[in-house]
Amino acid sequence: MKKIIFRTIFLQAVLVIFFFLCFSPHISYATAPKSVNLIYDMKTKTLSVSIDHYTLSASMHYIELIEIKKNGALISKNEYKTQPTGSIFTYTYVIPAKKRDVFEVTATCNLWGHTTSTFTVP
Description:
Layout: H1 2-23, H2 25-29, E1 35-41, E2 46-52, E3 63-70, E4 73-79, E5 88-94, E6 102-109, E7 114-120
Antiparallel strand pairs: 1-2, 2-5, 3-4, 3-6, 6-7
């Protein structure tokens, strides 16, 4: 009798784990940002951050955090709860900068991974 109960519980546990691994959207397609590209416009004092991050569902798997450092100091921390449609999208930030300032931007996925890029203002 104990063997039958143990087998039943074991089988149920295996099935639950199997279905979780097969049908969990978080595990099945979580990816870190593929790239982070930076462009700075001196005239408008605007930093453009273009991110390549594939997702099937922008409300469940998205870039949740953009951290911007200028010359090593954290100057902006931007949190998001979704991302624009499409794999490649751009956020813009008005940040004063001068020649030879160094921007370091980190884009963090809400499920897995991050990517960092640096840019020196010419």
